[in-house]
Amino acid sequence: xxxxxxxxxxxxxxxxxxxxxxxxxxxxxxxxxxxxxxxxxxxxxxxxxxxxxxxxxxxxxxxxxxxxxxxxxxxxxxxxxxxxxxxxxxxxxxxxxxxxxxxxxxxxxxxxxxxxxxxxxxxxxxxxxxxxxxxxxxxxxxxxxxxxxxxxxxxxxxxxxxxxxxxxxxxxxxxxxxxxxxxxxxxxxxxxxxxxxxxxxxxxxxxxxxxxxxxxxxxxxxxxxxxxxxxxxxxxxxxxxxxxxxxxxxxxxxxxxxxxxxxxxxxxxxxxxxxxxxxxxxxxxxxxxxxxxxxxxxxxxxxxxxxxxxxxxxxxxxxxxxxxxxxxxxxxxxxxxxxxxxxxxxxxxxxxxxxxxxxxxxxxxxxxxxxxxxxxxxxxxxxxxxxxxxxxxxxxxxxxxxxxxxxxxxxxxxxxxxxxxxxxxxxxxxxxxxxxxxxxxxxxxxxxxxxxxxxxxxxxxxxx
Length: 464
Description:
- The chain has two domains: 19-176 and 207-237 and 446-462, no CATH class; 239-333 and 346-355 and 378-442, no CATH class.
- The protein contains eleven helices and eleven strands.
- The protein has helices at 30-40, 47-62, 80-85, 94-106, 137-151, 241-251, 258-269, 318-322, 348-353, 375-383, 455-462; strands spanning 19-27, 72-78, 128-134, 161-170, 230-239, 336-337, 340-343, 360-368, 415-418, 435-438, 442-452.
- The strands form three sheets. Strands 5, 6, 7, 8 and 11 form a five-stranded antiparallel sheet that branches. A four-stranded antiparallel sheet has the order 2-3-1-4.
- It starts with 18 loop residues before the first strand and ends with a helix.
- This is Dyp-type peroxidase.
- InterPro entries: Dimeric_a/b-barrel, DyP_N, Dyp_perox_C, Dyp_peroxidase.
- Keywords: Heme, Iron, Metal-binding, Oxidoreductase, Peroxidase, Signal.
């Protein structure tokens, strides 16, 4: 079982935040950097500290206290080039050592023209990242300027490392991402760290070794010093919100009805915007029409009654493609997600014109003990494969379900997704022949693979 005092808090239970900045750095002098890093280690927020803070926040909220609590937290992760500079080359595999550009761009999924130059080494190699969270971006910046930066300086210029790029995001109202759906609901339960819910339709707890090196069911064969560490994926994903809304209108039965458009787009996502799963509420969100209904952050579903059909939730829907549950009852692909939106909310002018005018999207983060089994498998074998799930051809008219309509990457050839009528498959037939052309609404603009070491690994290995 992972030691909460040894793991970094963003992996589990999550750093409390309303704002977050990723400070990507290059290691200029490894020897000096190690000396400075040793001074930073006591400031890193552990899993236990994050858990205590979150418990305190929940207690304050339950007691009726209002207003933002002044808080910040710090974590650190390293790319393969950073680990190499620190003398550790025995961690990871060819996926980690090759880096995300080689895996996603050279590997044929991402378009190289979409990647920001900063993620291709324009301003220096990205050897690591400081993750700082807080209640505001001003608080985050203050933490960096008054805690992190002075740690790497001698009263003058920063030594040992150099910041080469930053990305910042803020939590949106009701925890929604820019398409308008509550985000971060369907998180896996980590066995040993979280109690089972005892809900028969909710996925069972996942062995902690799927997320933490050295845990139960971890078969990654990493060195002993890496125990309690986790591999982190960072990706900047641009979202084309007006284009997605227009596409939804063009493909639903009545493009003049907002209710019908909402139903169709919810079938594409697999949830209603407030988080309620279509598997439980296929035609109408619970409390629909009530002005102040609570956000339905439900995870109590597994596609069980409909596992061979898609009248309730299409096989190609986003949440079913990336977490298929009973469609693919194997927990080894599960990921812990820690993303945060960036950019302004879509304005009226953009909505009316149907075209994106401002930069917005998601700073995607996931943690897993194996990149090959986690993020990479989900992206390359599930979300971007038109024949997944592999045994659903009969229910889709003889073809595969199609690619994920949200994160599927369409480049040279148009992709398709089997999205049955918004009213579900007619009772006379369990087969859907209805395919829609998929466009790109989420564009990867860069990222990197990192290793998030334990506190003991930082002290005993990376600072030596």
